[in-house]
Design goal:
Layout lengths: L1 E4 L4 H8 L9 E9 L2 E8 L1 H5 L2 E5 L6 E3 H17 L3 E11 L3 H10 L1 H4 L3 E9 L7 H10 L6 E2 L4 H11 L13 E3 H7 L4 H4 L12 H7 L5 E3 L3 H13 L5 E4 L5 H6 L2 E5 L5 H6 L2 E3 L4 H42 L7 H20 L22 H16 L1
Parallel strand pairs: 1-2, 4-7, 8-10, 9-10, 11-12, 12-13
Antiparallel strand pairs: 2-3, 3-6, 4-5, 6-7
Helix pairs in contact: 3-7, 14-15, 14-16
């Protein structure tokens, strides 16, 4: 609860209150003194949470107040329709309370919060639409082609999250055939064997899921997690790492810091991100653009391939020289290649050729293959066979 006198500057209110609402209750309450013995309680937040505190709906025309049951169905249908179209809805309500003195107000807020927030008047909705960037959907499609699973974790309602997921291409009509493709925060905690009380303790390095097998069976089906708290996001990251997944997480708020720090790659927003989120992250996106992540993946795979080419070429030349020196020592009692010649090959031929191999630019085909495990050998068996065959060919020549 926050208590202010009427006509207080909005900028000062925000500096004192901050921008965080109650995550557990999903609303924010403010008490404003209208007159010396009259205060008005304002409530804003998730529409379903706001409606739970209202007993009537106020109409602007003629200042009429209708019973909640008369209008509840229409309001809920409107919220569901707007949410399905990717709109974020914020509900508002108020209530006037008579007091005798200031001490009564302090007691009212501290001792009777539930009474203070009941029988309120529902005013209406504020609808916010934040359209995805044009490059968001193509970028997610590239991630899917590259074998990267994208999971959206959001505090929005399930309907809003599905609407946004459809626009971005995170979830398709085929995914809806699976009941586990869209989960809410409490469902994720239930699957992982976490109670609500444990989740409310906040993010901790000791947080562990107690039911890994159930989660591992459905992890590839999960596309969206709605109504998720910061601790849910942190728990998801820890569990994904626990089952052997390589996890990259994006975030921009202070509450995202534990998840960013725990992930294999934490990615913070450079424009909208807070300083705490940037410090916890490994990478800061200067343009806050998801397509930059795809570009980073493409360049990372290109660097990996170039290093592999470089090593393959160097080892091939070296083994060829060793073959020549060894066989020469066996048959003519000395190496056909003297040290100066070996140095010339290493400094001139190998260096220039290796640089040419190591500077190949990335191509779109790099995003059309599955990722390589971090436990994968730099040079697999097939490369070793190629090295041996080419080295023997060099020896014969």
């Amino acid at each position: 609860f926050f208590f202010f006198k009427q006509k207080t500057a909005y900028e000062m209110l925000r500096s004192l209150v901050g921008s965080e609402m109650c995550i557990r209750d999903r609303y924010m309450a403010t008490v404003v003194e209208i007159e010396p013995k009259l205060v008005r309680v304002f409530l804003k937040g998730a529409p379903d949470a706001i409606l739970n505190h209202c007993s009537q709906i106020e109409k602007s025309k003629h200042n009429a107040k209708l019973g909640l049951q008369d209008e509840m169905k229409d309001v809920k249908n409107m919220i569901e329709q707007l949410s399905a179209e990717s709109y974020r809805c914020i509900g508002f309500c108020y209530k006037d309370v008579q007091i005798t003195k200031e001490a009564d107000l302090e007691h009212l807020i501290s001792a009777n919060e539930d009474d203070l927030l009941k029988d309120m008047n529902f005013i209406g909705l504020a609808v916010i639409y934040d359209p995805p960037r044009a490059e968001a959907r193509p970028s997610i499609e590239k991630c899917n082609q590259a074998g990267i699973d994208v999971i959206m974790v959001t505090g929005d309602s399930k309907q809003t999250a599905i609407g946004i997921g459809r626009e971005c291409g995170i979830i398709s009509d085929q995914d809806f055939q699976n009941s586990k493709s869209v989960l809410e925060g409490y469902e994720l905690r239930s699957i992982l064997g976490q109670t609500t009380s444990e989740a409310n303790l906040g993010a901790s390095e000791d947080t562990q899921a107690s039911n890994i097998k159930n989660f591992e069976a459905i992890v590839d089906q999960i596309k969206i997690i709605a109504r998720a708290s910061p601790s849910d996001k942190f728990l998801l990251v820890k569990t994904l790492k626990q089952i052997g997944k390589v996890v990259a997480v994006t975030g921009d708020g202070n509450n995202d810091a534990p998840a960013l720090k725990s992930a294999d790659v934490g990615i913070s927003m450079g424009i909208q991100g807070t300083e705490i989120a940037k410090e916890a992250a490994d990478i800061v996106l200067l343009d806050d653009n998801f397509s930059s992540i795809v570009t980073a993946v493409k360049w990372g795979r290109n660097i990996f391939d170039n290093i592999r080419k470089f090593i393959q070429f160097q080892i091939t030349i070296t083994i060829g020289a060793i073959y020549i020196a060894f066989i020469g020592c066996c048959f003519i009692k000395e190496s056909p290649i003297n040290p100066i010649q070996l140095m010339w090959v290493n400094l001139i031929q190998d260096t220039l050729a290796s640089l040419a191999l190591a500077t190949d630019p990335p191509t779109e085909s790099l995003l059309k293959r599955q990722p390589v495990s971090y436990t994968h050998l730099t040079l697999p068996t097939i490369y070793s066979v190629q090295i041996s065959v080419v080295a023997v060919s060099l020896k014969k020549k």
